[in-house]
Amino acid sequence: MTFEEFLVAELPGLTRFAGALTGDRDLGEDILADALLTVSAKWARISGTQRPLAYVRRVVVTTFLSDRRRAARRRTQPVGDPSLLDRAEPDVSDVVARRDFVAQLLTALPAQQRAAVVLRYLLDQTDDEIAQTLRCSTGTVRSHLSRARATLRMTAPAERS
Fold first, then answer.
1. Alpha carbon 110 to its chain's center
2. Comparing C-alpha atoms, which of 36, 34, 32, 12 is closest to residue 24?
3. Which among 96, 83, 48, 112 is positioned nearest to 120, based on CA atoms?
4. What is the pLDDT of residue 31?
5. 26-34 long-range contacts, CB within 8 A, separation 24+
6. In a 10 Å sphere around its CB, with 0-12 CB exposed, 13-18 middle and 19+ buried, how is residue 119 labelled?
7. How far apart are CA 155 and CA 144, in angstroms?
8. How far is CA 3 from CA 41, 54, 55, 143, in A?
9. Tell me: the pLDDT tens digits for 98-143?
10. DSSP states of 78-100 as a string?
11. Model's pTM, two decimal places?
């Protein structure tokens, strides 16, 4: 499979994945673009692997985590107003409200925990697959997920209508 064929088949899913990972569609596209530049240079080797999509997802996660570290060194502060991040057409439907609510909750999590949550609940990956992607032990994955759920329970209101 050529790199172009791979992109035609997988780009929409990778775009959703990167957007969910970052909590911001535009930043997700930037992270994905940087990751795909890295991947394209090594595509001949990557395409020969058993699971090139998993490899590309790992590169996206690594690029995201690296970007978060750089941002922390620059001491940038996240924007507290999610309406500035969502540049979609105005829509008052419940689906959009819930999506914004989930995005707000996810942005409160540290990068590693957010990555673990997105991999588990968006991509339905197992602890082993998440550990491979994040390059950590399965125990660390469980710890990330447990801490993330605890933070989300404390942050989210008790009842959401």
1. 12
2. 32
3. 112
4. 93
5. 26/85, 26/87, 31/60, 31/63, 31/64, 31/67, 32/60, 34/63, 34/67
6. buried
7. 16
8. 10, 15, 13, 36
9. 888 888 888 889 999 999 999 999 899 999 999 999 999 999 999 9
10. --S-HHHH--SPP--SHHHHHHH
11. 0.59
What tokens appear for 19 in the block? 């957007």
Q: Please give the single-letter amino acid code of residue 8.
A: V
Angle (CA) 124 126 132, round 5°: 115
In tens, the pLDDT along 73-104 reads: 555 566 666 665 555 555 557 777 788 888 88
User: Which DSSP state fits 109?
Assistant: S
Q: Residue 143: CA atoms inside 13 Å, Cβ hemisphere, count?
A: 8
Show the tokens assigned to 82.
């999610």
Cβ atoms of 59 and 38 closer than 8 Å: yes
Q: In angstroms, what is the C-alpha Rg of the chain?
A: 16
> Which residues make Cβ contacts (< 8 Å) with residue 43, sequence separation at least 6?
2, 3, 6
